[in-house]
Amino acid sequence: MITVIGSVNMDLIATTPRLPEPGETVAGTDFTTAQGGKGANQALAAQRAGASVKMCGAVGDDAFASEALALLGKAGANLSLVRHIDGATGTALILVGGDGENMIAVIPGANGQVKPADAEEAVAAMSGGDTLLLQMEIPEASVEAALKAARGKGVTSVLNIAPLTDAVERLAPLADIVIANETEFARLSGRPAETLAAARTELEALHGKTGQCMIVTLGGDGVLWARDGKVEHVPSLKIKPVDTVGAGDTFCGYLAQGLDAGTGFAAAVRRAAVAGALACLKPGAQPSIPLSAEVDARL
Fold first, then answer.
1. Residue 218's CB: how many other CB atoms inside 10 A?
2. Which tens digit of pLDDT belongs to each residue from 57-101?
3. Count of CB atoms within 10 A of residue 211's CB?
4. Strands of 78-84's sheet in order across
5. Which residues does 63 contact at the CB level (< 8 Å), separation at least 6?
6. Which residues, including other chains, have CB under 8 Å from residue 114's CB and lie 6 or more apart?
7. Angstrom distance (rounded) from CA 34 to CA 137
8. CA angle 135-136-138, nearest 5°?
């Protein structure tokens, strides 16, 4: 069983030929809405990957609340730990450029009301050997409470340190597995890596120092992982991205499912990398998450 404690959003997505510079207005070509939030995205990815998932989070009492949970509910995720509170559901304002890259502003709304007690309650309901998946779109105190409770419960904790905050250096060591992109990893390693070879060197050094299991997602350069003294690289599928929103969350959810199912670590990372790449072929965070059969067909 996988429990995800995290954010639930509605994404408001504008597509433009290119991303604007600061202070610039660029005419858009399309506008859509889609379910999002890093927690909900990762929960849906794990569910579509084949896991049984329980989501813990919060939505508001506005028109976005039920729609934000629609795909999770349709997929069969357990939503009993999602609280409905007064106020607004979390939203994300997303600009997607013609090359598939994006800029995102997140308004937490109800996500800011996911409390440490909620996190502790969710972990208390878990069993030893279960998998806990966390991100940084809920209050830092709640992430910390969940990580500490998981360690005492014998639960495997996976922390995606996105979006990057000043708390990640303090919280990352509390997790069993840390997932970061190249920018987030630079915060942990202390220096940016301009090339794949440099990123591998930095990961080897940090893993050698901490011994912690770490995964670094590198977009088109694939994935680096370090575990038990070994560092490996998984190449990315060669694709032409349409929209990279949700690719990292898809990777996290698929990885959690693989680990929870007892798949070998290397195989779980490879399958997650394929899923993350396929998520770039469709627009929207949750609508783009591939089904298990689609991923397995590309392995």
1. 20
2. 999 999 999 999 999 999 999 999 999 999 999 998 989 898 878
3. 12
4. 78-84, 53-59, 2-5, 131-134, 156-160, 177-181, 213-217, 223-227, 230-234
5. none
6. 5, 6, 7, 56, 57, 58, 83, 138, 139, 142
7. 18
8. 105
Please tell me the distance from the alpha carbon of residue 19 to that of residue 9, in angstroms, as a whole number.
Answer: 22
Task: Examine residue 192 and say whether the peptide bond preceding it is cis (omega within 30 degrees of 0).
Answer: no
Number of neighbouring beta carbons within 10 Å of residue 173: 13
249 is catalytic: yes
Catalytic residue among 11, 130, 243, 249: 249
Distance CA 226, CA 205 (A): 10
Amino acid at 185: F
> With left for phi above 0 and alpha for psi between -120 and 50, is residue 198 left, alpha or beta?
alpha
Segment 222-274, tens digit of pLDDT: 999 999 999 999 999 989 888 888 899 999 999 999 999 999 999 999 999 99
Q: CA dist 156 to 1, 182, 198, Å? A: 11, 24, 29
Q: What distance in Å separates the CA atoms of residue 131 and residue 42, rounded to the nearest whole number?
A: 13
Beta strands 131-134 and 2-5 are parallel
Distance CA 160, CA 253 (A): 10
Check residue 129 and report its DSSP letter: T
pTM above 0.85, yes or no: yes
Return the structure tokens found at 17.
């030929």
Q: What is the DSSP string of 247-294?
A: HHHHHHHHHHHHHHTT--HHHHHHHHHHHHHHGGGSSSTTTTPPPHHH
Cα–Cα–Cα angle for 248, 298, 280, nearest 5°?
Answer: 35
